[in-house]
Design a protein that fits this description.
heterodimer, A: 8-stranded mixed sheet, 11 helices, 12 strands, 31% helix, globular, B: Rossmann fold, 4-stranded antiparallel sheet, 10 strands, 25% strand, disordered C terminus
Chain lengths: 328, 273
């Protein structure tokens, strides 16, 4: 239902997103993975028509057949909440501290669905139940500061769900939370996507979280989608050197059993250098300069997308890695 | 191996806001009866969730705050019994690296100034010696001495954390307290910084207190680990032992990777955090 074609976003002539193309089918769960500055958050904002005014947007964003890339704000406003809604990273700054939880959740329904106060409140109560908040009746009259971090994030999700969106965009929804609370929120997002047949775009730098929630993932670096495919396959068998570097950069808890007491600490893999500023990104492959398997042509030539296997996996690299020697 | 840091029976409580105007102030026991030792060349991980007392422990070890009870000994000296001038001299021996280098470096001064600041506590060091030590520290963390003239915003996140580490080691300390030293960094940078900490530790024989909520990082980086829960150290020991055979149910719950029970709505409702 979402069709994105050659979407580019540039600031002062520098492309922060370079001709991204992907689909978001109904009910799909898509991970958008990358580090800060890779273009994932701005891509997500563009999906809601909320790219910053200073960004030049080109390409096509089609929602249910309607071309929206150049659509006026008036049209976007009627789409937001009903077609697409967003959950932000930091619930305390996304929730109005002066409003009661019930009013925060009811506001979009009053505005977009024209519900009266009583009906909106009843729906808000149901939504709190749906996102797993105990004693919803009492919570409706509380303020955000009276809730724990996990509960705030649940309230934010409830508000996003209030007008039954077809697509929920969640930008790093758990970074502010403790690990086990974060895990529950991830499970909640996955469950909501399943029970509501709602598409989910899940943005994160955390590969474990992405593996837990999504079916398919896009890896972004320097504004390019460098690799995409089914999440499990891509994590088990990365073909882009950046994806591989990202996976290997995280120490694994289960590797611990291999290290005997007193044995020397192994070196952690890391990607050399750091992400260049937008203006300093190489013109060709964005990963040139940090890539371990770089060829002379890479910095000047933007690699085309190669399709691996039966069309599900794609990688943007001149010399993609060979398949890992592990049975799938 | 020589003991660099020891805590015995350390407790600290903080008053919370009054519930009613004239009511008693409730107390939060941020740290209860904590005991540990740390030797030269060793890394001790402190794990726990937010609010478990990790940062209170770090503040007390650094002498930023005083315990209500118990003794904290750094390099054989009880830091809360020392007169201020002597604590100042001892200060060169234990330094801290903070989570957010942007918050711990003065944005309006070149980083060389910030790195040199801990050296000012030692009046025996003159300006040329300080400059030399700053240049050495920058090289130790993989930057160039000329980088000392730059300002914090001119560095990338990973480089800024290198600057913060340079500031932490410029006094040639014996103990380094690192509070979430890589959690503000991108994943691809974390390895560089952790490897750097390992190298510095090997070169300088540093004892390191490594505070993190990230168990995988602690498993990688630390020799021993102490698990904190509600202000108490509930379990401690060699990392491999604690993480592969946790004795405490709390440790097990931290380590647990709960299977996704997407249909199990009831469990979510009852255990909502």
């Amino acid at each position: 239902m979402y069709k994105i074609r050659n979407l580019s976003l540039s600031f002062d002539g520098h492309e922060a997103v370079r001709s991204a193309s992907f689909d978001i089918p109904r009910g799909a769960r898509l991970g958008l993975v990358g580090e800060s500055g890779c273009g994932k958050s701005i891509t997500a904002l563009a999906l809601l028509g909320m790219a910053p005014a200073s960004a030049r947007v080109s390409g096509s964003i089609e929602i249910d057949g309607q071309e929206m890339a150049a659509a006026p704000e008036r049209l976007w406003r009627s789409y937001r909440a009903r077609k697409v809604a967003m959950v932000f990273q930091e619930p305390l700054s996304a929730l109005n501290p002066l409003k009661r939880v019930g009013d925060i959740i009811a506001e979009p329904m009053r505005l977009h669905l024209r519900l009266d106060r009583r009906a909106a409140r009843a729906r808000a109560r149901d939504l709190l139940v749906e996102v797993g908040i105990p004693d919803p009746e009492a919570r409706l009259d509380q303020y955000p500061h009276q809730l724990s971090g996990g509960q705030r994030q649940r309230v934010l999700i409830a508000a996003a769900l209030s007008c039954d969106p077809q697509l929920l965009v969640a930008d790093e929804p758990t970074t502010a939370l403790d690990a086990h609370v974060a895990g529950r929120i991830l499970d909640l997002l996955k469950r909501l996507s399943e029970t509501r047949d709602m598409a989910l775009v899940f943005i994160s730098h955390d590969l474990e979280a992405v593996a837990r929630v999504t079916e398919e993932m896009l890896v972004m670096y320097g504004g390019d989608i460098v690799e995409r495919g089914p999440t499990a396959q891509l994590l088990a068998d990365p073909r882009h050197p950046y994806t591989k570097g990202l996976i290997e950069a995280r120490p694994r808890l289960d590797a611990l059993t291999l290290r005997a007491d007193g044995a020397p600490r192994p070196r952690l893999a890391s990607i050399p250098g750091s992400v260049p500023a937008l203006a300093d990104l190489p013109k060709g492959c964005r990963f040139a300069g940090r890539c371990p398997i770089e060829r002379p042509a890479c910095a000047g030539l933007r690699p085309a997308v190669s399709v691996l296997g039966p069309g599900q996996r794609q990688v943007r690299c001149l010399a993609p890695l060979l398949p890992a020697k592990v049975p799938a | 191996m020589s003991v660099v840091l020891s805590l015995s029976g350390v407790s600290r409580a903080y008053p919370l806001p009054r519930r009613r105007l004239l009511g008693p102030r409730p107390m939060l026991q941020a740290l209860s009866d904590a005991s540990l030792t740390l030797s030269a060349g060793e890394t001790l991980g402190i794990v726990g969730e937010s609010g478990s007392g990790k940062s209170t422990l770090a503040r007390l070890v650094m002498g930023f705050d005083r315990p209500d009870a118990g003794r904290i000994t750094v390099l054989g000296q009880d830091i809360n019994a020392l007169p201020a001038p002597e604590l100042r001299r001892l200060r060169a021996g234990f330094q801290m690296v903070f989570q957010d280098p942007f918050g711990s470096l003065d944005p309006r001064r070149p980083v060389g100034w910030s790195i040199a600041e801990p050296l000012l506590a030692d009046p025996a060091l003159d300006a040329p010696t300080r400059r030399k030590r700053v240049a050495e520290a920058l090289e130790q963390v993989g930057l160039r001495p000329a980088d000392g003239a730059k300002f914090p915003h001119q560095f990338s996140g990973g480089q800024r954390q290198r600057v913060a580490i340079a500031r932490g080691i410029v006094t040639r300390p014996r103990l380094l307290v690192a509070d979430e030293p890589v959690s503000a960094l991108d994943v691809s940078m974390q390895g560089q910084i952790l490897n750097l900490l390992s190298d510095l530790q090997a070169q300088m024989g540093l004892a390191m207190l490594f505070i993190s909520h990230d168990l995988a990082l602690v498993a990688h980086q630390c020799d021993r680990v102490a698990v904190m829960h509600r202000g108490r150290i509930v379990e401690s020991g060699p990392v491999a032992q604690v993480f592969s055979h946790p004795r405490e149910s709390y440790t097990r719950s931290l380590l647990a990777r709960p299977e996704t029970k997407s249909a199990d709505n009831r469990e979510l409702v009852n255990n909502t955090p």
